[in-house]
Each structure stands twice: as C-alpha cells, then as structure tokens.
From TrEMBL:
<dbReference type="InterPro" id="IPR008979">
    <property type="entry name" value="Galactose-bd-like_sf"/>
</dbReference>
<feature type="signal peptide">
    <location>
        <begin position="1"/>
        <end position="19"/>
    </location>
</feature>
<keyword id="KW-0732">Signal</keyword>
<protein>
    <recommendedName>
        <fullName>Ig-like domain-containing protein</fullName>
    </recommendedName>
</protein>
Length: 520
C-alpha cells in the first residue's frame, strides 16, 4: 500500500529524544501503530539546495524498516552510506534542485494501525520533497516610446549610463531561480521610486513587467532584491549608474492632482526648478454643495526628495472627502530643471478612496461566494450570480422577489459578513449600482423598493434605498449613494432587501471612508 505524505500534523516531536542515541526502542507489548515524521513536514518538506531534513519512524510494533533514497542528489548525513537505511532516524542532505521521493517500507509484528484504520502487517510511505535552487535574479529593460510602443533594450551592466529622456518610461522585466516569495525594486530618479511584489502578486503574474517614468535629471542606480522566508534565501542586484536622465524639449505635463495632508499635490512629468515657482500664479477653489471657499495659499514648494511634485499649502484650511477642490495655474515663470515652461491648467483633485469591501464580493466576481440567504418572513425569492447583465467585470447579482398569494410582502434578503469592522465615529460612503428590469408596487405598501443596510445593530443601520424602484427606467444602470456613521466599533454586515414583484441586478458595491465637511 502506498501513501503520499506532504504534511503530517499528528505530532510535535522534540529532537532531544535523539540527542544521545540514534536508536530508540519502542515499549514492548504495544499494538502496532504507524507513526512517522519529518523535520520540515509543517513547511511542505521544502528546502534549498544544500539543505537537510531529518526523517523519523517512531512507530510501535516494528519488525523491520527500510528507508529508500534516490540514486542521485540525496545523501545520508550520519550513519550508513548508499541509498538505503534501516535506522529509526535518518538525516538527509539534498544537493540538487528538483522533486525527490523518500520511501519508507515497514513490516510490523501484527496488523498495524494508521490513525484509526487498521491495515496489514506491511505499510509503505512516500515523502515528497521539493528542493529549490538558491535565489538568483536577473533583469532586462526596454525603452517605452511616447506612443506606447517598445524600443530598444537597455545595456544591463553597472555603469552603463543608458540615456533616458526626462519624463520617458523604461519597462523592466526579471528572471528568477529559486522561487522568491517577495520582490523589491528601487529606482533612483524614477517614479515610482520603489515597487514591491508579494507572493500572491508574483503568482498572478503582476510582477512580470514594471514601468518606471524617469523624472529627475542625473545618473541613477537600480536595486533589485528577491527573498523568501522558508527555506531562507535572498539575492540582491545593485546596478550603479545604470541610467542617465537627460534634458527634454518636450512639454512638461501635469500627470496627477492629489491631496497630501490637506495640501494640494501637483505631480508633473519631470522635475520642476524650485526657484522658478511663484505663489502668485496659483489659485485654489473649494466647492461643497452650495458652499464655496477660496482659501489663502500660504506656501508653494517642492515635495522633499520628489522634485516633480509641487505642494500647495492652504494654511489652516482642512480638506474633506466631500469637497470638490480645483487648482488653477496661470502661466508664469515655473519651469522644469531642463528649462521647459509649464503651461496653464485647471484641474480637480483626484481622490484614491479605498473600497473596504473585498473586490470579489463587491463585484460578485467570485460568483455569489460569501453572500448567503438572510432569511425573512414571507416569500424569500431568489438571488444568484449572473453574466447576463453586468456593469463591469464578468458578474453581477441577479435578484428576484415576489408578492405571496395572500398578499404577503415579497422579500429577498441576502447578507455578506465583512472581515473589516466598522470604526466608531468614522463616516462611510456606501455606493452600489442598480439595474431594474421590472418592478410592480406591492399592494399594501403602494410601492416597491430595494434597500441595503450596513447593519451592526437594528438601532444603528443605514438604509440605502432608491425609493419606488418601479419608477426607474427599465434596464438602465443607476448609481445609489448614502453616507453612514457608526457610534461604535462593530462588525460590518451588508444586508440587501427587495420588496414587491421585482427583478433587478446589482453590481460594483463600494464602501469607503468619506469625510463630510461639517455644517455650521
């Protein structure tokens, strides 16, 4: 009988049992019981080239045993030489990368137990071992032309000083042996200046290409590090003076407008000459509903260590998520470090609000996983993931509810328990998109509706409700939004409810922290 073991969670063995002797004698007159282990069983029996694993057989009622090793790449560290051993404990060294099988054939005094099951008097076990190469990294890089096409490959060697025109992009690729679990780039003079990838991103292929726009004049280096925690391994590439950023005659562009600590951040395509900046050429306007504010600009200057980012300070004025903030530049003396003047612009701040709903749940891209029937009185209706009508991605949620034969309210309730708790005294904005196929008002209510509750208790729930869904234009996506603030920290439970004879689709659910400007 064969049994492949990649992970055995039955024992926590102290190797001190074997510190004084390599042989351990099982107590007599005990039932035959199969019990084996490896020192790396909790880590998928995975080691690096040159690594060691100890295998042990502490079964009771053993008559004989034989460990069988591959012909090459594996050797016994202590005890017998060759490709087999009869010892209770064997320590093996793995000198080649690849997949290896370590076999154990046992003969027992009687029929043996494996767990609670009784087998015959002989039993075979196979340990599967993965041996990884030492981590070894390599990179290549290619120019990206202004039209997005790819140009020549760069010379990847220390001191190569590949010339890159300021504000142009280079695409980096990498190769790796040894399955690094984490990758980290540092790009002198580049934007971004640092990029990291974790195991999930590496496996998803997100790390295969990394684009870097060079914004700072001068000579710059690239550092690339790959590592894994277990089996421990690391490799570092340092390519000093790989890049030389040279002057450009192309127009400087405003690539982004952000908010950083209540300041307006202007992200340009390349470095700005600090001495050329004048406060007088900028103005900022804040609009929030009927309120309009024209704050005083207290300072304008470069962000430390990021010469392509201009920060506009607004004194004591605080910026809120609900504000529409517009910055205007009237052409003046502001120019890049290579002498190109900035042109006029008027742009709004772009806000990166983080959706705290898991991406697959928010877009139903993992079908309806995680969404469960919530229960209610009357007629439950149905909900299911659908690819028939979607706003984005591949799925939406298809909902049907109906009125009962005796006029009961038709309800379809389904819930999702979020991993992220709602924080006390934090305002959240709740948004989803609704596509109503058909909707008939419920007889006793006189309307049909669709409601979403962010529920941590019945007395403290927000209702996002597009009233009278029967009035919606059929087969049209409509955005529904509301704000919610909890008085206490608690679990987030999203609860959808549909009333009346209604068929509809939901997609793109979003819950973000959203600061509202206080009303006076």
């Amino acid at each position: 009988m064969k049994k492949n073991l990649k992970h055995i969670g039955l024992l926590l063995i102290s190797f001190s049992l074997f510190a004084c002797s390599n042989e351990w004698e099982a107590p007599a007159d005990q039932p035959s019981h199969h019990l084996v282990f490896s020192s790396e069983m909790d880590y998928e029996n995975k080691v690096q080239v040159g690594g060691e694993i100890t295998f042990g057989d502490i079964s009771t009622g053993i008559k004989s045993r034989t460990w069988t090793l591959p012909e090459a790449g594996v050797s016994i560290v202590e005890g017998e030489n060759g490709t087999s051993s009869s010892a209770e404990i064997v320590k093996l060294r793995f000198d080649q990368s690849g997949e290896f099988e370590i076999g154990l054939s046992q003969t027992f005094e009687g029929n043996a137990y494996v767990g609670d099951a009784q087998v015959g008097s002989s039993y075979d076990t196979t340990f599967n071992v993965t041996v990884l190469d030492s981590i070894r990294l390599g990179i290549t890089a290619q120019y990206v032309n202004p039209d997005g096409s790819l140009g020549e490959f760069l010379n990847i060697s220390e001191g190569a000083l590949n010339e890159v025109i300021a504000s142009r992009t280079v695409r980096y690729y990498y190769t790796a042996l040894g399955e690094p679990a984490n990758l980290n780039y540092k790009f002198g003079g580049g934007n971004p200046a640092e990029v990291s990838y974790d195991t999930q991103q590496i496996l998803a292929g997100e790390s295969l290409e990394t684009d870097v726009k060079y914004t700072r004049m001068g000579d710059h280096s690239v550092t690339f590090i790959g590592n894994r925690e277990r089996p421990s391994g690391i490799d570092t590439l340092l390519l000093e003076n790989l890049i030389r950023v040279v002057a450009s005659t192309e127009p400087v562009t405003l690539d982004d407008v952000q908010e950083i600590d209540d300041k307006v951040a202007l992200v340009f395509s390349r470095e700005i000459d600090a001495a050329s900046i004048s406060d007088a050429n900028f103005s900022v306007k804040i609009v929030n509903g009927d309120l309009e504010i024209n704050p005083t600009i207290s300072a304008v200057g470069l962000k430390p260590n990021e010469g392509n980012v201009v920060l506009i300070s607004l004194g004591d004025e605080k910026l809120y998520s609900s504000d529409v903030v517009t910055v205007t530049y009237t052409p003046g003396s502001m120019k890049t470090t290579d002498g190109v003047l900035a042109t006029a612009f008027e742009e709004n701040i772009r806000r990166d609000l983080v959706n705290i709903v898991d991406a697959t749940a928010a877009g139903f891209e993992n079908a309806a996983d995680g969404w469960v029937f919530g229960g209610w009185w009357g007629n439950p209706g149905s909900f299911e993931a659908s690819q028939e009508v979607v706003r984005s991605g591949n799925y939406s949620l298809h909902v049907n509810s109906f009125t009962g034969p005796a006029g009961e309210e038709g309800h379809t309730c389904f819930v999702y328990d979020m991993a992220t708790p709602v924080q006390a005294n934090v305002n959240y904005q709740v948004t989803f998109w609704l596509n109503v196929v058909s909707s008939t008002p419920h007889g006793t209510l006189g309307f049909s509706d669709f409601r979403m509750l962010v529920l941590n208790d019945w007395g403290n729930a927000v209702i996002v409700s597009p009233d009278n869904t029967d009035q919606f234009t059929p087969n049209t996506w409509v955005k529904v939004t509301a704000n919610y603030k909890s008085a206490q920290e608690d679990a987030f439970r999203l609860w959808f409810r549909s009333i009346g004879d209604t068929e509809l689709y939901i997609d793109d659910l979003e819950i973000v922290e959203f600061e509202l400007r206080p009303t006076e």
